[in-house]
């Protein structure tokens, strides 16, 4: 195969990434800045580019824009230690395959590289996100099994037709934030993903303090927060409602701590999903039928 090219101005990062990739059997070429990259691309084709945003001279975003114009089929994974969701959104809009925050989780990086290289092999796979660490375990109710009945629905699972992005303001924090929604494979469900690649399933068992609520029968919150491995995504409730209303079963949502929501409604999300469109998948939906009342924690008598 053609080399993977690592573009970073820090020698230690170049050498460490090259060593990891070579151990995995990938040929690697390293570049410290834009000119070295352009010269390398003239000498031979590349399989993939790992591109840092902050580079001397021409920065990573400018390089990405040039690569999209000159070699639109070349997958690019952006890296940064000082950016955020706004930079991630901008990179995806410009055509980056994915975006990772430093310090990099090497297992996440390797999975994304594998997915990105696989996606270049067919147009069908190209719409799928490059992350292969999405959990695909079937849903298992964590409550009384008699209260929930699983049934085959007879309808196909559904995912997004394309990647879409939304910028906005966090309703609780007031800071600028954003989300990137991507198609996901069958049986993956709704998955939130932090900028460093940690996946948080959109399930009741991912609720922050869920185990405490189960044992102590107390649960209070002014927004719905999902948590895993000390990562959190807040105010997911309106987005989850919009996904449900759209009939979407499998979606990957890259987010930075909080879902943007200015007016407290699902309207912006509904418009975003309409823009993306939907695609039926080759797997059947299993529906959870609620047979009796379920509750977590204490109910407000009012």
Automatic annotation (TrEMBL):
Pfam families: LpxC, Response_reg. Coiled coil: none annotated. Keywords: Phosphoprotein, Transcription, Transcription regulation. One of its GO terms (molecular function) is UDP-3-O-acyl-N-acetylglucosamine deacetylase activity. It comes from the Bacteria. Residues 3-117 form the Response regulatory domain. GO terms for cellular component: membrane. The modification 4-aspartylphosphate is found at residue 52. The keyword NADP does not apply. PROSITE patterns: RESPONSE_REGULATORY. GO terms for biological process: lipid A biosynthetic process; phosphorelay signal transduction system. InterPro entries: Bact_response_regulator, CheY-like_superfamily, Ribosomal_Su5_D2-typ_SF, Sig_transdc_resp-reg_receiver, UDP-acyl_GlcNac_deAcase, UDP-acyl_N-AcGlcN_deAcase_N. This is UDP-3-O-[3-hydroxymyristoyl] N-acetylglucosamine deacetylase. It comes from SAR324 cluster bacterium. The lineage of its organism: Bacteria, Deltaproteobacteria, SAR324 cluster.
């Amino acid at each position: 195969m053609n080399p993977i090219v690592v573009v970073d101005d820090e020698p230690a990062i170049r050498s460490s990434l090259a060593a990891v990739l070579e151990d995995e059997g990938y040929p690697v070429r390293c570049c410290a800045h834009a000119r070295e990259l352009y010269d390398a691309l003239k000498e031979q084709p590349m399989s993939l580019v790992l591109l840092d945003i902050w580079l001397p001279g021409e920065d990573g975003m400018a390089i990405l824009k040039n690569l999209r114009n000159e070699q639109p089929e070349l997958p690019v994974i952006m890296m940064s230690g000082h950016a955020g969701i706004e930079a991630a959104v901008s990179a995806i809009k410009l055509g980056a395959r994915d975006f990772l925050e430093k310090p990099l989780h090497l297992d996440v990086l390797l999975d994304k590289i594998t997915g990105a290289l696989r996606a270049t092999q067919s147009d069908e796979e190209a719409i799928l996100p490059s992350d292969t660490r999405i959990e695909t375990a079937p849903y298992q109710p964590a409550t009384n099994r008699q209260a929930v009945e699983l049934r085959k629905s007879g309808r196909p699972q559904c995912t997004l037709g394309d990647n879409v992005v939304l910028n906005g303001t966090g309703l609780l924090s007031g800071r600028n934030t954003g989300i990137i929604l991507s198609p996901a494979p069958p049986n993956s469900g709704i998955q939130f993903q932090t900028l460093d690649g940690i996946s948080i399933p959109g399930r009741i068992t991912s609720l922050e303090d869920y185990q405490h609520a189960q044992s102590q029968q107390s649960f209070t919150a002014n927004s719905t927060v999902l948590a895993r491995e000390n990562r959190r995504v807040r105010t997911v409730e309106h987005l989850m409602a919009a996904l449900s209303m759209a009939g979407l079963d499998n979606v990957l949502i890259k987010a930075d701590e909080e879902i943007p929501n200015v007016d407290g409604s699902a309207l912006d999300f509904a418009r975003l999903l309409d823009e993306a469109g939907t695609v039926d998948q080759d797997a059947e939906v299993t529906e959870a039928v609620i047979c009796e009342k379920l509750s977590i924690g204490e109910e407000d008598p009012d």
